[in-house]
Amino acid sequence: MSESLTGDPQRLVELRAKIDAIDESVHRLLMQRATVIDTLIEVKGTARNGAAFRPGREASMMHELVARHGGHLPVTAVEHLWREIISTFTALQAPFSVHATPMEGDLMAAVDTARFYFGFSVPLLMEATAQDVVATIEAGGDKLGILPLEGLYPWWQGLRKAQIVCRLPFIEAENRPAGRPAVVIAPPLADPVSPEITCYRVDGLSAMAPVSEGLTILSQAPYGTGLFSALVATREGVDAITARLSHGLDIAPVGGYAPTIPYPNGVQTASTPSAKL
Ligand SMILES: O=C(O)C(=O)C[C@]1(C(=O)O)C=C[C@@H](O)C=C1
């Protein structure tokens, strides 16, 4: 910082005026964004369950956000602001609730994840277990569920109508906030788009699934007597799973998601500005 500016009260007044003008523009633009809600409702017909939520569109918006990002702001702070905006816009079209469960017993992590990605405009209900979240979403209605990928219960075996629609976190960076691995499940969406990456429930494994090229083992857990179930994600089809894991497995698609976004520079925190800026 230049010495001559330190303690200059006039300069501070000018900078605050600049911040006020920017804040006013941001606020006016947000209100302008909200004027499209009524037309969105008309065009999309949000009277039906799940009619407002478009996970594919949200994923591409996050990709664009990361692509254009630069400067001092931590990318996850901007991500969080947009998640609040998008989630609020979804709820304004068709109210919905979010259902979550402690992540390996960690209630705070589950609340952080739900609020980071779905904001404070939507009700958050905590369920006792992952199975309860699945049962709640399976029952239908305007609800989304957040399921942890850690843990030793194969909750994905309960997915029938409900499907995986996104993977969290969207942005992959070291030490990011709300970074616990999870997926979002939803009842059948009004306007489903085939995701780039498909998730499969793979039952009947005689051992834990090994790491293999082209397959991501999102989670796996024992069930029955000596059997394992895996939640697998791949851009390839069922054949890739049988070829790499085993034949004779019970495999079913359970939704999918858009690719997550690597952020190689990591998350710059507010307290550690990057020297590169
Ligand atoms: O693009 C839409 O379909 C919208 O409803 C808008 C919007 C947004 O606020 O940008 C809100 C909800 C959807 O999940 C995706 C995007």
UniProtKB/TrEMBL annotation:
Family matches, as SMART domains: CM_2
Pfam families associated with the record: CM_2
GO CC terms: cytoplasm
Protein's organism: Fulvimarina manganoxydans
Protein name per its UniProtKB record: chorismate mutase
Gene3D superfamilies xref list: Chorismate mutase
NCBIfam families given in the database record: CM_P2 (TIGR01807)
Domain Chorismate mutase: 6-97
PROSITE patterns in alphabetical order: CHORISMATE_MUT_2
Single GO molecular function: chorismate mutase activity
Highest taxon listed in the record's lineage: Bacteria
One GO-annotated biological process of the protein: chorismate metabolic process
EC number(s) given by UniProt: 5.4.99.5
